[in-house]
Amino acid sequence: MEGERGQATVELVASLPVLLLTAYVCFQILAAGYALTIADGAAEAGALALASGGSATAATRDALPGWAGEDARISVRGGRVTVRLWPPGVYEALSERLAVTATAAARPR
Fold it and tell me: Looking at the 3D structure of the chain, how many domains does it have?
């Protein structure tokens, strides 16, 4: 039993990187899901504005929260409003790979 002293501490320290990586991956997945929800709502707001004769781009930008405003690309073609959004993250390369796209359609007046 003398040789096993401190083994739990060593195992905890050794497993910390794996636990931190797992937590980060879970955070990125949740952030991507949240970004998809936001992009979908913004595209819908833009489509509703387009259907009522308003500016789809302005309505879409207004529907996005502050952090997403500069991370979003909005396109309006015909009756379709498309929002591409990059979720927040520590590593930009990973955030670019997790970009989400939402589209909503309406018939313009």
Answer: 1
Three-state SS string over 37-96 comes to HHHHHHHHHHHHHHHCCCCHHHHHHHHCCHHHCCCEEEEEECCEEEEEECCCCCCHHHHH
- In which domain, by residue range, is 60 found? 2-105
pTM of the model: 0.80
Do 88 and 70 contact (CB within 8 A), yes or no?
Answer: no
C-alpha atoms less than 13 angstroms from C-alpha of 103 in its C-beta half-sphere: 7
Output the furthest CA–CA distance in the chain (Å, rounded). Answer: 82
Residues lower than pLDDT 70 in the chain? 1-4, 108-109
